[in-house]
Amino acid sequence: MVDVPRQRPRRIKRLRPVGDGELRLHHRVVHGYRRAYRMAGHGPVLVLIHGIGDSSATWAELIPDLARTHTVIAPDLLGHGASDKPRADYSVAAYANGVRDLLSTLDIEQATLVGHSLGGGVAMQFAYQFPERTERLILVSAGGVGREVNPVLRAVSLPGAHLMLSALRLPGMGVQARLFAHLMRILDTDLGQDAPELLTLVDALPDATSRSAFIRTLRAVVDWRGQVVTMLDRCYLTEGMPTMLIWGDRDSVVPVRHAYGAHEAMPGSRLEIFEGAGHFPFHTDPARFLSLVEEFTSTTGPADWSRENWSGLLRAGRPGSAAGQPDTAQNRAAERDMREASERSAT
């Protein structure tokens, strides 16, 4: 395993100012649905993909800095933010297709993808479906690399979730939820690190349409046992694609041990741990996050994809798979774990 760098890289010199007008929401109609996005800056393209229940607003304070050296595109995924919320396919694969289609309408062929939480799973799926369009991957507290997830999300995937979320909108419930969040912070729990952002996600579900889209999205990736999709069985395909993983060591939504597992499964990947941060490390320490993104994109070249190399990786298969391996108890156990992951693959 590659050593985890602990030193913070120096900030790269800022190049150009970004006006407030560039940060406003734009809209494109794709397949008959109105999709919102923010777009700013000039240069190599960065696509920022938010997590479940969130929106492009989560990146708002980072976009001006990133847009000094990049063209930054931050979409509101379908069912989120200011985008339409139809009764539609909210699977990870469908979201990857949606990102591809939005980029196509903007005449963008290739990009570095930065994905947070669910958005990390979407970014990985995009790289799997469209490797020729993916220059780099930056995965932030990403879903899709392990079964574990916060019990609250597992509960919301159960029948009756609509009533549960509706109850949070009743008079007085908001005050109680904030008091609970404050207590979690006083007790210095991991959940307390993420409570303010998680409460903001609840506030972003003001009506039945928003709540329905949220539940549909959640059930596409989570059930009562945990996460139901994974990319671990295909992470070896990122060989040759610059990949950086960023995680908070106190993440209460997706445990930090998922970061180490993904790092080991992705050849040549880089891992950065934000000590004391929860599920939103880019909110906890935005200066370090910006420095890492700027340094990573400026010191690595875009993935050199070719059909021949992709075919070769697929033929060779995942390192350590059963083919050609000794029939030991350890290998049989590892293979059982991977078969379980394969059952949850996002194809």
Automatic annotation (TrEMBL):
**Residue ranges of every copy of the AB hydrolase-1 domain listed in the record:** 44-286
Q: Which UniProt keywords apply?
A: Hydrolase
What GO molecular function terms would the record report? hydrolase activity
Q: Which domain of life does this protein belong to?
A: Bacteria
- Locate the region Disordered: 307-347
InterPro entries in the record, alphabetically?
AB_hydrolase_1, AB_hydrolase_fold, AB_hydrolase_sf
Q: Where is the composition biased (Basic and acidic residues)?
A: 333-347
Q: Which Pfam families match?
A: Abhydrolase_1 (PF00561)
The record ties this protein, via SUPFAM superfamilies, to: alpha/beta-Hydrolases
Q: What is this protein called?
A: Alpha/beta hydrolase
